[in-house]
Structures are given as C-alpha cells and as structure tokens.
Amino acid sequence: MIMKLIRTYKDEKRVYFLTEFVNGIDLFDAIREIGLLKNEQAKFYAACLLNTIEYLHERDIMYRDLKPENVIIGQDGYPKLIDLGN
Predict the structure, then answer these.
(1) What torsion, rounded to 10 degrees, do the Cα atoms 1, 4, 66, 33 define?
(2) Cα separations in angstroms, 3 against 6, 23, 33, 50
C-alpha cells in the first residue's frame, strides 16, 4: 500500500524519482465527492494506513506528511500512500 520507487536519477541540481503510476482518486477528493465516510469505510482506511505506517516504522522510515491528499484510493478500493519526497 505504498507507491513503488522504480529508479532515481540526478543531475547537478536535482534528484528525480521515477515511481509507479497510481491510478485512482486521492482520499481528500473521495471524501468530498462521497461526503462523510461511513464508520466501516473510515475504519477500513484507518486500519490500512496504520498497517502502512507500521511497516515503514519497522524499517526505521518516518513518514511526516500523512494527509488525505497523499493517499490515493486505487481502483481496487485500497489506499496507497504517495508523496515520499521532501
């Protein structure tokens, strides 16, 4: 449930990340379109995100930008954490 990093590139000024294409809608827009999430939906997304954050922390990775705009709901209905850059 984390966007995959495929490769990195760099030049004299910047580092570039090539990532997988994640097709879906961000959680912020989904909430706006649907309205408030039902209790079961909120529990599902919260549990998925907690699993994802736990996975990262077990590997000593800190994710400090958790917000609905950085979570994509894929076509399979599962959330995927994106924006692992600065």
Answers:
(1) -70
(2) 9, 11, 23, 16
Note if 65 is an active site residue: yes
Residue 86: inside a domain, yes or no?
no
Per residue in 36-59, pLDDT tens?
788 898 899 999 999 999 999 999
Active-site residue, selected from the candidate residues 29, 65, 76, 83: 65
CATH code of the domain covering residue 13 = 1.10.510.10
Tell me the one-letter amino acid at 36: L
Residue 35 has pLDDT above 80, yes or no: no
For the chain, the domain total comes to 1
Domain range enclosing 9? 5-81
